[in-house]
Amino acid sequence: MRRMESTGIIKNAGLKITPQRKVVYEVMMELRHAAIDEIIKSVQSKDNEITISTIYRILDSFCKANLLSLVFHPEVGKSYYDITVTEHHHIFEGQSILDYMDEGLTELIRQYLKEKNFASVDISQIQVQITINNPKLNSKK
Fold first, then answer.
1. Which residues pair with 72 in a beta bridge?
2. Which residues pair with 96 in a beta bridge?
3. Average pLDDT value for residue range 3-31
4. What pTM was estimated for this model as a whole?
5. CB proximity list for 138: less than 8 A, separation 6 or greater
């Protein structure tokens, strides 16, 4: 990703452009899904003057501005920041998290909920989490 792209995305979210925000956003574009420790390591490898508290504040501001979201990994028991904020699903396999885009599945769930009288509720987003049991991965634990 070019610096100009990250600058535009941050600015369009209504946030002030700072060098620290650009670094954090560009790291998230590279990582896609990442736990806080991985983000801190990557950010500080690019700019070791960005403090841990600054990284936390930036991630929080990005979540509030809808530039990032949080996803809980059921196998690992940790939350991961996710750069993809459009409606999508997740597949968990071992330590990895994969985005799964399926408008048909999402619409099927919306229709099902509507038939079950959830129609009066405004559903802002549907996310399905699929955990794959891979015996090869489990035997390495």
1. 79
2. 93
3. 94
4. 0.85
5. none
